Amino acid sequence: MKLKIIITNQNKDIIFKGNPLNLPIKYLDIKKKSVELFDDEEPCIIHQSYAIQKLVDGFLNQFKGVEVSELSINDLTESYSFIDIENIKDMYITIKR
Asked: How many whole angstroms separate alpha carbon 42 and alpha carbon 22?
């Protein structure tokens, strides 16, 4: 994935900057996705990695071909609740290609 995500707060402080696959993701959501994909309630690292990829891919699909700069995360149509950042709904996202 050649994208870079930047998540900032209202003061424009950078909360996260990096590869989308490195986003902090709630383990419960990884586990739910693993159950959905593999019927595996105790996912191994391979299943965890694949579940993370699917969560992130689903999230990023809403931005295909669209330039995103300081978009309010609260305005997004796809779920962002799997991202483990406190008060994520109050943050802003920029995607660099």
From this structure: 21
| Whole-prediction pTM | 0.90
Read off the pLDDT of residues 32-75 as tens digits, 9 standing for 90 and up. Answer: 999 999 999 999 999 999 999 999 999 999 988 888 999 999 99
- The C-alpha atoms of residue 90 and residue 66 are separated, in whole angstroms, by 21
HSE value, Cβ hemisphere, 13 Å, CA-based, for 69: 1
Residue 63 structural domain: 4-96
Distances in Å between the alpha carbon of 20 and those of 1, 24, 40, 90? 8, 9, 24, 19
Q: How many domains does the chain have?
A: 1
CA 37, distance to chain mean position in Å, is 18
Per the structure block, which two tokens stand in for 26? 């709630």
